[in-house]
Amino acid sequence: MEPRARAGKNVGKETFNPKEIGNLLFAYGDVEKPLPETVRVADEIVTEFLEGVCFEASRHAQVAGRQKLKFDDFEFALRHSPAYLGKVRNMIDKRQHINKMRKTFNQDDDTLAKEAERAGKSGGGGGGGADDELLEGLSDEEDIAKPSVVGSMKGGGSKKKKRKREGAD
After folding, report:
1. Which domain holds residue 108?
2. How far is 84 from 74, CA to CA, in rounded Å?
3. Ordered alpha helix ranges (H), 28-70
4. How many other CB atoms sit within 10 Å of the CB of residue 30?
5. What is the distance between the alpha carbons of residues 50 and 6, in angstroms, rounded to a whole number?
């Protein structure tokens, strides 16, 4: 099936958010608030281009005997346009780099948490010296002795809050 025949069902309907298309046009030098007709035409052009690329990629996957699309299929579809192909490859490389860095960061974060947990167990509380200095002037007894007003002025609230207030008085 030809991609243009498939695109006919979406003609006149907006595929993308008009604000996003307007921002895209503004980024490429159009006025800040483009005409609705301009946004509609740009939406149709972008939609048709994406449908064409996806159709070519799906056809390549089908010829290769696969049902799922791979990056190679999109490379094949964009092989005649080196600018698009370079941008797509750059985007994929960046995404792989970000995923690799996230994985490294998460592993480092887990390792640090485990080390802190071990230090807390084996150190006997000696590892939190900076926290102890920050909490020196605060006392839990003062907070319990002077209950703060919780709830509305009408005296509403849960029974638990009322019991806590009664117990503190």
Report:
1. 81-117
2. 10
3. 36-63
4. 16
5. 12
Q: In terms of domains, do 60 and 16 share one? A: yes
CA gap 115, 117 in Å, rounded: 5
Q: Based on the structure, what is the number of domains in the chain?
A: 2
Q: Within a 10 A sphere around the Cβ of 52, how many other Cβ atoms?
A: 16
With H, G, I as helix, E, B as strand and everything else as coil, classify residue 166: helix
Residue 5: inside a domain? no
The size of the chain, in residues, is 169
Residue 55 has pLDDT above 90, yes or no: yes
Residues 26, 30: Cα–Cα separation, whole Å: 5
Q: Tell the residue number behind the tokens 């490429």, with chain if given.
A: 28
Structure pTM? 0.52
Average of per-residue pLDDT across 53-73: 90
